[in-house]
Design brief:
This protein is 35% helix and 28% strand. The chain is built from 14 helices and 21 strands. The strands form 4 sheets. A 6-stranded antiparallel sheet has the order 3-2-1-6-5-4, with helices on both faces. Strand 15 (432-440) and strand 16 (445-451) form a beta hairpin.
Length: 569
């Protein structure tokens, strides 16, 4: 972390100098305070009277004086002078209290006096303790292990014990002390789990008291010195120096808790630092800075990804709304609205279009009813592939093409073939289903073809039935195969007959079953007729088709749907 700032960055260099000046100024304040109110010089301290020599305490006296859990051990040597066993002589009050708390209710055998340590706790023989005892005896110096773990068999079952153990020579004995639970190890592990560390920096001499996992969290090697505040500033990226200066200013001079985010050069990680002042006295001078640093890189990346996703979703939503608006305007311009304009042909018509609510709000459904020069009536209903503006564009192309082709007075079979060629000629995957019909008013005859579309339904005297398919069955979907041939069939209309043409979005459910879809439509048509037969005129027919669509509609519908009704009054 001692790499200099990037060359040529004048602003960064000035900000770094400002941070150093701020720290130096606070150091001088603390030094002056210590000189004025600190301890007297060594040569002015009165000498204490010489103490009378006293005999050293025994091992048992030292044992009972220790504030931590401790055992007094005596070694048993073999003929080779090496320790072959140790005898547990005594426990201090803290050790007894710990055992009573950790193993209540007589879970351990009662204490009966001195006993071999490895007989009382056999699993200790497989730990680092025998080696630590041998090293303490051979070197005459305390030995310490970060964590020692062993199993203890109790009356309630085996218990795993973890502790930080220290063994020190004490005359002819050993003192074994431990900190239950390996608190330092657990603290370091916790820091790694939450990517958090802390430290306290003394402002007078750059003395540092870091947490055990400080280096690991910041990504420093174990042999690298813990950075001072000045070192921390050196390692901070130029874009974060202003933030760091403001944080130090708030802590040292304003004496308040503050927070900032830091990035260090050579690393992509982001740290949040929360710092507070440590004062010499309440309300007095700040002599140290205490800070907690948390790695928030993952959190920041997730938030950034969420912001990008939200931005993309908003743009997509705006685009969908624009497409829906354009498509709706286009649809309103091309779909007819019936009143009484078909009266001259001896028919009444009504239609309902229900847009695709989960999608763009519009789809590829279309219908057509237009008088022809020969006195006949062109009727059609289709469903272009897809949704949104693309489907509406294809729908409009096919609808206008059919309107123009119908003026040729060719048969509906020929019109359907030509419309198929129009769809096949489109460069994209432009497919559509359709019912194309011509009504002959002088014969009350409906002559129609089917291109992969649900067949029309005839409602006569309250009974609904699907019209028989043309010879050879329904033809291919438009746009699938150039040159496909289509056959027509004829339906004679009687007074009061209602012909219903609809798109599959009105009946289709997931999983799709065409037969069940058709039965559902037939049942709904008859039910609506029984509840209230269509009244006279366009208004009565319109009311009927709206009730029918409402009965079939619901949250299970996943496509736009259209219903066109024709009645011979």
């Amino acid at each position: 972390m001692d790499e200099p700032p990037p060359a040529g960055s004048t602003r960064a260099w000035l900000e770094l100098q400002a941070i150093r000046a701020l720290l130096d100024a606070q150091r001088r304040r603390v030094t002056r305070y210590a000189e004025r109110y600190g301890a007297p010089a060594p040569d002015t301290v009165p000498r204490a009277p010489e103490a009378v020599a006293a005999p050293p305490p025994s091992g048992q006296e030292v044992l009972y004086a220790l504030p931590v859990a401790a055992l007094l051990l005596t070694p048993v040597f073999g003929e080779d002078g090496e320790i072959r066993d140790v005898v547990l002589l005594a426990r201090n009050a803290t050790a007894r209290a710990h055992a009573a708390t950790r193993f209540p209710g007589g879970a351990l055998p009662p204490w009966t006096g001195p006993v071999s340590l490895f007989e009382r706790v056999p699993s200790l023989a497989a730990t680092a303790i025998p080696r630590m005892l041998a090293d303490a005896h051979r070197r005459g110096a305390p030995q310490q292990s970060d964590t020692v773990e062993w199993l203890l068999n109790t009356r309630t079952g085996p218990v795993r014990v973890s502790a930080e153990v220290r063994i020190a020579p004490c005359g002819d004995h050993f003192l074994l002390t431990w900190e239950p639970g390996g608190r330092l190890s657990m603290a370091a592990a916790a820091q790694q789990l939450v990517r958090t560390c802390w430290a306290e920096w003394n402002l007078a001499d750059d003395g540092i008291q870091p947490s055990r996992g400080f280096r690991q969290v910041l990504g420093l090697a174990e042999n690298v010195p813990v950075p001072s505040l000045s070192d921390l500033a050196d390692a901070t990226t130029p874009d974060c120096l202003t933030t760091l200066y403001q944080a130090l200013y708030d802590v040292l001079l304003r004496k308040r808790v503050t927070r900032c985010e830091l990035r260090f050069r050579g690393s992509e990680r982001i740290f949040r630092m929360v710092a507070e002042p440590v004062r010499i006295a309440p309300g007095g001078l700040v002599w140290a800075l205490r800070a907690v640093l948390t790695d928030v890189t993952t959190d920041r990346r997730r938030r950034e990804a969420a912001r990008r996703a939200e931005h993309d979703a908003r743009r997509e939503h705006e685009r969908a709304e624009a497409v829906a608006e354009i498509a709706e305007v286009l649809r309103a311009a091309v779909l007819p609205h019936f009143q009484d304009e078909l009266d001259t042909y001896g028919l009444e018509a009504a239609a309902v279009y229900r847009p695709d609510a989960p999608g763009a709000g519009v789809g590829g459904d279309w219908y057509k009813a237009r008088g022809l020069p020969d006195g006949r009536l062109l009727l059609a209903l289709g469903d272009a592939r897809g949704h949104g503006l693309e489907a509406v564009t294809l729908m409009a192309k096919l609808r206008y093409a059919l309107a123009g082709l119908a003026y040729t007075s060719e048969s509906v079979e020929r019109l359907t073939q030509w419309l198929n060629e129009v769809a096949c000629a489109d460069a994209r995957e432009s497919t559509a289903t359709a019912i194309i019909a011509r009504y002959h008013p002088e014969r009350t005859l409906l002559r129609w073809t089917c291109a992969g579309h649900p067949r029309p339904v005839l409602l006569r005297d309250g009974r609904a039935a699907q019209l028989p398919a043309p010879a050879g069955g329904p033809g291919l979907t438009l746009g699938v195969l150039p040159g496909a041939a289509y056959n027509a069939t004829e339906t004679k209309l009687e007074t009061g007959d209602i012909v219903l043409m609809y798109s599959d979005g009105l009946t289709e459910r997931r999983p799709a079953d065409p037969d069940q879809d058709t039965l559902r439509f037939l049942g709904a048509a008859e039910t609506c007729f029984r509840e209230s037969a269509p009244g006279p005129g366009h208004t009565g027919l319109q009311d009927y088709v709206e009730r029918l669509v409402a009965r079939l509609d619901g949250p299970h519908c996943t496509d736009d749907a259209t219903l066109l009704a024709l009645r011979r009054p």
